[in-house]
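Q: A small favour: would you put together sequence and structure tokens for a protein?
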Amino acid sequence: MHPNRHIGVSVDGALKPGPVTLVRVHWDGQHYQLVTLTGKVLAAEPQFNGVSGKVQITLPVNTLLDELAQMGAESHFALIYGNYAAAITWLGRWLGVPVTTLTKGE
């Protein structure tokens, strides 16, 4: 193969069901902030090329979008299998970075 040719690789599939934590490092223009929420991946067939899935959260979607829009946070989050909300809160305290946990009732 010619050394200047690149081959694209895309993994197709669905996320495995189970509890997850979503986390984002958000920059508000002056300070960093951690934004997190928990949920669970539901069993679902792949929906498009690449990795796809459905995550169920307790917070109503309209409320989630309102909260993200009000803080100016972007919509892309890292997904971690398991519930790490308490660990992320601890990490934020240790780093001196505020943590916003988006859950039902907030």
In short: The first helix runs from residue 61 to 71. The mean pLDDT is 85. The helical segments are 61-71, 85-95.
